[in-house]
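Issue: ligand-bound run for calcium ion - logging full I/O for the record.

Environment: standard queue, default settings, no custom constraints.

Inputs:
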Amino acid sequence: MKKKISFKSAYLFPLMIIIMFLLLFVMLFQMRFSITQFVMEQAATDNEMITKEKSALFSSLLDNMSLEAKGILNYSEFAFINIDNEYDARESINDYFYNTNCVKFMYFMRDGRMYDQDARIYLTIDENLKNLITLEEISLSKPFYDTTSKTELIIMYVPNMEADSNVLGIAAYYRVSSIYTIGEFYVSDAGSYYIVDNEGNAVFEKDKGVTVKSLLESYSFPVQEMENILKFIQSKGNTDTVISSFDSAIVSISSVQNIVDWYTLSLLPSTVISDKTSYVIEQTMLISVIIMAVFIIFVIIFLAADNRALRKMERLQNIDPIAECSNQYKFEIDAGELIKSNKTTQYAIIYINIQNFKNIKQLLPLSEVNRMIKNLSEILKKGMVKNLETYGRTADGRMIALIMYKEIQDIEERFNDITEKLKALGPVSGYMMRINAGVYCIDRNARYQVSDMIDRASFAQNSLREDSIVNLEFYHQKSHDDLLRTIALEGFMEKALDNEEFVIYFQPKYDLINNRIYGAEALVRWIRPNEGIVPPSQFINLFERSGYISQLDKFVFTEVCKFQNKMLKQGSRIIPISVNVSRASAEKDGFIEYYVNTKNTYGIKDGFLELEFTESRALEDYDILSKRIKDLKKYGFVCSIDDFGAGYSSFKALQALDFDIIKLDAAFLKTDNTNPKKNANLLSGVITLAKALDMKVIAEGVETRQELMLLRELKCDAIQGYVYAKPMPIADYIIFVEKALRNKTENDNFVG
Ligand code: C2E
Ligand code: CA
Ligand code: CA
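Outputs:
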């Protein structure tokens, strides 16, 4: 059995993913400490790098400044050759300083005059400047706050190296903000950045009052640590970087190149770091959540699509598209589960067949045929006991249902109910739908698979004839065994003739008019090795269906000819013997030739071979058979109609076919005894009719003396039946005939 695809397993995968992410969260929390550590280290190196960067930046700025200052000097040299032309100078200078960091500058002349960039003479000399111009090297002032421009400025002084120049040197004022930028640490600007001199005081006006000591103290750095740091900055010209991290902060100090006594100091409080740590964790979690969400969405989309496909597949796998109910596969699964889980419930399988379905299919358009099936399916659906019963459609297009019952009557009622509801729906396309059904009452001890149960219900339904008035049949083990046996026999059939498993019995017939043995009928017996005698009722139909019957009939006929020939040669008295000829045999090509040739080969005289024909089908056309009988009679065969009055043998056959003898079926005798008069009249009528048609009448299946007497009275020509003799092996028959011919008072031999 195929395994059902479980949807539970489909959800297992995303569930696992969720668990995985939860574990990741827990891990992140666990790792918080190590993350902090990591961030600390990262921060320390970053901090160091920033400090170094800042120092380098600051140095390069100063370099640029001095170069600019040098440029000015060269330029101004040229400019100040014609210094008398103040306006020229001013223009040239303005051109040059346009867009620079320089706010103002002044140059000092040998004659003691001092000019600003507008070539105006400054009368007062700043204290700072006074100090500057005495220096013979490029120098930088400490930043100071200029109250007029309201900015912080530094002055750079560049001396003029040309001895004969009018210009002694030049000083430029630079705006501090343009060279001094506070570094941004991470996301928070809680980090601070200072330039300090080697006494530990913040250099810039902006940070006035800030000292390394006060800074470290505010972060409660240990005294020892503080002293180390101060020692570092006091040792002028130290180009190293020192990092000191403490619980509350990380401090990083680096010397500013070119300026011996300045240091950049960056300070990163721990709060920033823990903020950063949380931030890292939060970010990681956020990303995890986003990834997880995206993933889950994908999985859901995938599963939904997959689910749809699965459901479609499952539907295809489980649903009958016409009846819109379970197909056999699904029914078998569901029914199996119901039977298993409701151990005390009595269940039956009902197999419902639409009668004449083949014809309906040819007569009605497909849509209407499907509507019929759908109607039946709907009726079944409404009748089901929820969660305890189920129904479906088989692979061969029959509706099946698993129903509960207490008494057999319940099943009959159930079936009648379905029939009634169908009736109530009225005809489809003018066609009134009729159903018949087979029922298998589940025998739990048998432990059958549901498919076997369906087969059994189907078997019961199959045993119903299309035109029968009964339309519900229950499964009986015996009839099923018979079927199985038939199937088995079919397998043995081909070999049986070669193996000489067929034996002929003779049943004597009695002449009522002359009171003597009149003939015999050859009846075949199949003797199966290790099994014994198989009666014809078990295999004749089967052989007729497979066409094998004509071979068997020929065999029997030949054996009878051989027997007659033997009797002839022995000089014994020859009595007519009849053989059965199935319709299928008679209609075969070469039938006449074979029978006539054989008859001639064994030298059997006319009138000593009789052929019995049975009608096995209704509404025959008699063309072929009629011709055959004519021919047979021409060649000296006696022809009789067998089983007259039973099955399909009819008056029509009498009219169409020129028989010599009518064999009345035992049914004429075995009618009910409530109206013996009527039976006798009927029998009498038939005998009279036969005689009127110039036929002899022989009654079959005569079992009692009473029957015998009645037939004698009615002037029946002959009888065949147990009352006289049963079918017997050839050896017995020979003895029987001898005795019969010797004994004149055969009447006494009658039994019954
Ligand atoms: P049938 O031709 O009607 O043969 C008569 C059947 O009635 C025989 O059954 C015989 O044993 C049985 N019978 C005879 N007297 C009595 C009686 O008093 N009471 C009862 N209850 N039965 C009696 P059997 O031998 O079982 O044969 C059954 C049928 O099989 C035959 O019916 C015949 O149609 C067919 N059959 C037998 N041998 C052959 C054969 O060689 N070829 C063909 N085509 N059919 C054969
Ligand atoms: Ca017969
Ligand atoms: Ca018969």
